Structure to design on (447 residues):
């Protein structure tokens, strides 16, 4: 599909390339990906109603305590069950404890047993499925939620996110179009941004994410989250100053916001300011030990010469991923990339990457499989998979690095030089570990 997306208000969303595919999965994945659940702006956060709380985390804790107390005397209050489940999902966003998924799951099952047509429990079940990377389940729940609330925008967010990760990009276009028509706000604008980013329209992605920031959300964390996403767009195109401005803005909106702290740590690593990077990563991990932050710390330590410290962090990252798995989160794609990047368990990584392509046939899964095949010594089989990863025209430096390395190994000198040059042109500092590898590989290509 190559149609343009137009919001109900404020002019055209369209670009010359057009809008097609994906969604802010980072916004709904609390496990190991780009990034927490539930999606910002999905609905007014229940913590917004807690008076007197000094921080969002304090508000969530207070809400959990008061709702638990109420349910002890009124255990069949479905609305309160939904509220507590939503608070548990919010708690994952704040502290990264995947055990809250099981608690939310149990509550939502209870709510639906008491009220099978409970629209909020149905919607939250979809959000939970996405957070666990169970995308077929997420799509099913989103469709059920849409049937219960045909005029609602929130179910379309769940549906879009699932369709993207399932590789159903044309369907995702249609879903997000309906979403932005119904409610042009932070949630829909941020999905528009990611759609554009996946299709190589980075300027359009930035414009849409700026609209998401301007639209705002019910709590400061929502705005801070999209400011970090906007900063990531600048970072990914090599604009480190633009990225820093957005990360600092996020910290002003929500002081100490962990995603902004971790993003700033990655930025400092790109600037080779190792001491600051390590300190910021440690600060983030104390609050939210997300595997990607632990891996980032390990990479910063490795690049600064602390191989022992890096190895410790990599072992911790694997342990964190196993905790995610124990709470029902599918981490195959993330685990495969980590193991392949660091050349650890390549046999296990390849099996995980193949499962990811089967269960989550997105361009990111194709890229993970291609890179894992290459790192396992199978560049020939990696090539067509890598070409699938590029099928949307995504301007991702890491994807171009992966394809360039595969092509170089196969003697495809012209293509390799083009892709490696593109990776470094998009962002010379795309990876603490791999940017130097890309430069060395490019230099080594025959003239």
């Amino acid at each position: 599909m190559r149609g343009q997306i137009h919001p109900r208000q404020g002019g055209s969303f369209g670009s010359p390339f057009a809008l097609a595919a994906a969604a802010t999965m980072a916004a709904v994945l609390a496990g190991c990906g780009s990034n927490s659940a539930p999606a910002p702006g999905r609905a007014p956060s229940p913590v917004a109603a807690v008076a007197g709380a000094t921080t969002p985390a304090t508000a969530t804790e207070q809400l959990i305590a008061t709702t638990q107390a109420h349910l002890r005397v009124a255990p069949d209050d479905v609305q309160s069950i939904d509220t507590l489940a939503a608070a548990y999902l919010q708690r994952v966003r704040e502290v990264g404890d995947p055990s809250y998924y099981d608690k939310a799951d149990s509550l939502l099952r209870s709510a639906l047993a008491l009220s099978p047509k409970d629209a909020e429990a149905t919607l939250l079940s979809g959000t939970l499925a996405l957070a666990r990377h169970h995308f077929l389940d997420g799509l099913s729940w989103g469709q059920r939620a849409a049937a219960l609330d045909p005029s609602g925008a929130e179910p379309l967010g769940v549906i879009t996110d699932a369709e993207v990760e399932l590789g159903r990009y044309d369907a995702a276009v249609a879903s997000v179009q309906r979403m932005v028509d119904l409610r042009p706000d932070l949630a829909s604008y941020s999905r528009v941004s990611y759609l554009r980013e996946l299709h190589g329209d980075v300027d359009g992605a930035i414009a849409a994410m700026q609209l998401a920031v301007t639209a705002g959300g019910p709590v400061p964390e929502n705005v801070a989250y999209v400011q970090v996403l906007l900063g990531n767009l600048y970072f990914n195109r090599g604009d480190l100053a633009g990225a820093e401005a957005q990360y600092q803005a996020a910290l002003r909106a929500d002081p100490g916001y962990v995603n902004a702290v971790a993003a700033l740590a990655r930025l400092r690593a790109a600037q080779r300011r190792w001491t600051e990077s390590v300190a910021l990563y440690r600060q983030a991990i104390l609050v939210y030990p997300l595997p990607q932050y632990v891996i980032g710390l390990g990479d910063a330590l490795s690049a600064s010469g602390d191989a022992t410290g890096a190895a410790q962090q990599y072992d911790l990252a694997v342990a964190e991923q196993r905790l995610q798995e124990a709470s029902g989160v599918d981490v195959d794609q993330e685990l495969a990339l980590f193991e392949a990047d660091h050349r650890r368990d390549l046999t296990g990584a390849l099996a995980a990457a193949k499962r990811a392509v089967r269960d989550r046939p997105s361009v990111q899964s194709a890229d993970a499989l291609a890179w894992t095949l290459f790192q396992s010594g199978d560049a020939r089989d990696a090539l067509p998979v890598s070409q699938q990863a590029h099928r949307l025209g995504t301007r991702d430096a890491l994807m171009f690095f992966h394809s360039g390395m595969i092509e170089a190994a196969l003697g495809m000198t012209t293509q390799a030089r083009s892709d490696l040059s593109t990776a470094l042109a998009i962002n010379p500092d795309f990876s603490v570990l791999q940017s130097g590898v890309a430069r060395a590989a490019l230099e080594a290509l025959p003239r």
Summary: The chain is about 70% helix and 0% strand. The first helix runs from residue 56 to 73. Residues 1-53 have pLDDT under 50 and may be disordered. The two ends are 40 Å apart (CA to CA).
